[in-house]
Amino acid sequence: MSRSCLQTLGSLRAAVGQNHPYVVNMGGFARLVRRAFARARGTPGISRQLLNAALLLSVLGVVAAYGQGHTIAGNKVVVDRQAHWQQWTFPGGTLDIDETGTVRPHFVPKNTLATSDIAAFIKRGKDSEDATLRDALSAGTRAADLVHLLDGDLSTYWEPDPASPLRQWWFEIDLGRLVAATHIRLTFVGEELGDPFLQFVVLTSDGAEVTKGQRRFNQVFRTLKSNKDQREFAIELDPTRFDREGRMVSDYIRFVRLTITDTDSTRAAEVSAEQYDQLAAADQGAVDFYKKAGAGQVQVSEATYEVVDSALRGEIRRYRRERPRLAELEVQTLGENISLGLVERRGAALLTFLDNAPATAFFDGIFETSLAFTSTDEIRELFFDLGSSFWIDRHQIYYDRQRSRFPNYDLQTSDGSLAADGSLVWTTQASHRNRATSGHYTGDVYDVDTFAPTRTRFARILFWGGGQFKPREVQFYGEGFQPEVELVSPLIRLGSSKNLVSVEWDGDADVGTFIEIQTRTGSELVEEYSYFNSGGAEVSAEAYAGLGFFSKGRIDTTEVPGGDWSAWSLPYEASGAAITSPSPRQFLELKARLVSDDPHRAAELRSIRLNFVEPLARQLLGEIEPSVVGALGKEQELSLFIKPSFAAQSAGFDEVQIRAPDNMALEFRGLRLGREAQWDSAELVSSAEVMATAPDSLWVRLSEVVSPSAADLIEVQFATALYLPGAVFKASLGHSALENSWQRVDPADATELATGQGMLLVGPEGGRHVLGDLSIDSGVATPNGDGVNDELAFSFAVTKLTGTQPLHVRIYDLAGRLVRHWQETRPLISGEYALRWSCEDQSGALVAPGMYLLEVEVVPNDDSRVERTARHRLVHVVY
Predict the structure, then answer these.
(1) pTM of the model
(2) CATH number at residue 239
(3) N or C: which end of the chain has fewer CB within 10 A?
(4) CA proximity to 91, closest of 349, 339, 337, 344
């Protein structure tokens, strides 16, 4: 790279800061530039100055491109604009993002107008600039004016050129895809603007061709008499079938053609001489002259009229020219065909019986595409992943006219729930058995199944029975907001490692809806390459290497998360929650989920703000010693070693916090600071203060701030008991004078002084006992009200069991009768228990003096094989 280019990069770094997110990846960008220089070197006509200029423009382009999907404002990552959300990744068409930056799941409507979004379908599979609405419109005359039929404005219209012959008075509209139409509505202009068509016919086509380039049309409407005053027509379409005469009638259409068959031309309406003179020249029609003949009159030419005797002159009739003007044409459909967006949503349609061969031809809205196959008595499957979740209540299959329909099939849907074996849970929505299969014989060329609105992500058709089949389209319909939509941010670069503090969001979640926000973080990126041929099609690296020089296209480089990235965090419970993903980190991603269990309610998300601060240290590593305890339920002393890596300008720390699972209590025993190399001389800190916190946490504050040069190793000594097979500790360092300074400790092999690796504490292998020894303070209770031994106190530990499970305490007399029974329930059953019996029976009365049997029992609610689920002790009641 030339010196001037490097100077350009250096100037940019100096201008915006070495760690600014716009330039942190300049090294990777420079590598791309070097490759460009290598390819361009020696190319005729490309000078070093031109390359330098191109580099500068490219750098400016990179600067402009960074920040897409978010804005970094101070110590916040902010996502709150339409332009931000549009850069996030989500299944195509599943979100509606308005100009205010509000994001909501897409609403799937019923009774839609196929003429309102023609342009979107005309552009499918084409470059946007190469396809426009006009590509869907054709006419024998004035084709450019056909756009007025689709603009929703009754003051604009299409009118045939009056100078063109009647045979050219037609137009055709391509809806861009097959639709299940219910009505075609024609609206002519008002009386003050023009006339309806005198006589016309409306035809439709699904796109099937009689001969190459010649589509087959079906007549769906024809005027039976001259129309002078009807200005609105609602043409109801018949279901797709063959009628009794073998003619095809259809509501499954792509093309609409209207042909004007008759016109009043220059004689639309007779007007007075005064009215005629007031008409615009273009609206002045014929003038007819008449000569008296006996009791009547005959029409003559104007020249004859002028030369006949005035007594023989008859009347002059003047006419307004016909103004045949159609304002709007609408094609109303069953609703939005969910199937059409399958490819954009990265869904799938598979013939599982043909090695998962793709079947996207069923979902493309094009009549010409289809798949033909045979069936046997063996059940075969068509599998569909819709690419997102929808509320579905209708399914249709449209068959080829010359092929049979399925004699037997089941339609099944799944919301994505999994069975115990990991397979999808399916619900049968429709079943058909032993049907006649030929469309020519039955009159049916498609199947329709309707059912209650069902949350659906996957669907399948199981079919069997001999025959040949050629489905052309498979459609799904429904209504309501999508029940679940997920969107993921682009890579967010913080410029350098930042301590991630909290995440906030603003939105609305009514009853039955909720918003979930998750994060993941990392410090490594890797490059992935995408190869394209000269035609723009993506190819493999091997295929690209085999292409000739002129057949090679661009190579795109994308940076993606590397191997050190965390998994997605659990959803944050509320706005303002502390970040739980590993931190500090240099890179992060955000994920949002909008979920609803009501088709007519949706959560709305307006913004996300992620707060961060400069970290106390570049890195904090932590390790528990020992990492294995000798017994469960027994107190043991542990040490947490923390190895900091401070930056020179670090403010140091004066607080340490350790957190354990809920059922573990932590007791502080001491804290040591020092140099690992001279650890034998490290001394306990005498000024450590234990701050008030929950039993499962330990918060220690020092009287003085520990500077980066004072210590390179910290040891926190504490005691606790482990009740489960394993427990993960979490730790943080903080600076009490700095807001939001808590920085998490990463589990690692922090020091050779510890024999483990990380912050996982595990119990001994083997053993199935879940109840520890039953300890009683005194085996004798004297409930005489003097405050001494009035109650029986006992304690024990439960280990190994997880979740919420009942623990039973029972008191029996020596005859075996149950005297008292109660139940203890905790969110996590394992842990230490300290209970008391007041020497009362179930009714609350004191029991009689004597000996009793105390029983403590746990009943595991799973099939785990555990032992010693009950303990017993004899106790005495004396008074």
Answers:
(1) 0.78
(2) 2.60.120.260
(3) C
(4) 344
